Amino acid sequence: MAFLTPVRRLRGSVVYSYDRSGYLTGRSG
User: Fold this and answer.
1) In what order do the strands lie in the sheet with 7-8?
2) Which residues contact 27 (CB under 8 A, 6 or more apart)?
3) pLDDT in tens for each of the 29 residues of the chain?
4) Organism's domain of life (predicted)?
């Protein structure tokens, strides 16, 4: 998953990451 850049936010503990297409995906936890 080298294309993924996970960024952890303190607000809501949601992990946002961009795929190689530049699409923003959100995952709780």
Assistant:
1) 7-8, 14-18, 24-28
2) 14, 15, 16, 17
3) 455 556 655 555 556 666 667 666 666 54
4) Bacteria
- Residue 3: φ, ψ to 5°: -85, -15
What does the domain layout of the chain look like in residue ranges? 1-29
pTM: 0.23
Q: Tell whether the torsion through CA atoms of 1, 4, 19 and 10 is positive or negative.
A: positive
CA–CA dist 1, 10 (Å, integer) = 23
Q: Give the model's pLDDT for residue 29.
A: 46
